[in-house]
Design brief:
Largest sheet: 4 strands, antiparallel
Strand content: 35-45%
Distance between the termini: 86 Å
Strand order of the largest sheet: 1-2-3-7
Radius of gyration: 25 Å
Helix content: 25-40%
Number of strands: 8
Number of helices: 1
Structural class: alpha+beta
Order of helices and strands: HEEEEEEEE
């Protein structure tokens, strides 16, 4: 009777080890890969727009059509990240301002305005 239980026990132990190793290998690959690969550009607001990719975003303004304060908002996995308000006069331009970084993923970003 013990002759038949030993091979079965060894087979179960081997299967358990292979499953654990496979799970650890899959987890290592998943954790080492970048968590976000999306990127995009927001709609324009008074000559300003926002671009995002992976975990960060930056604002851009070209010939602002309405003077006021602008900020860039990144929509992150666990809440929003905002830049500080930046004042732009009529016709002003700034190719890169209002950078924000998310801890994990960013799904989109957009420009906010107040006068």
């Amino acid at each position: 009777m013990t002759e038949h239980t030993q091979p079965a026990r060894r087979a179960r132990t081997t299967i358990t080890r292979v499953a654990a190793f496979t799970g650890a290998a899959i987890a290592a690959v998943a954790l080492s890969a970048p968590s976000a690969m999306a990127s995009g550009t927001s709609p324009r607001l008074n000559g300003c727009y926002s671009t995002w990719g992976s975990t960060g975003s930056v604002g851009h303004c070209v010939s602002v059509t309405v003077a006021g304060q602008y900020k860039n908002r990144g929509v992150c996995t666990f809440g929003n990240e905002d830049s500080i308000w930046t004042v732009f006069g009529y016709g002003a331009s700034n190719p890169k301002w209002g950078g924000v970084e998310c801890t994990f993923d960013i799904s989109k970003s957009y420009i906010m305005y107040t006068n």
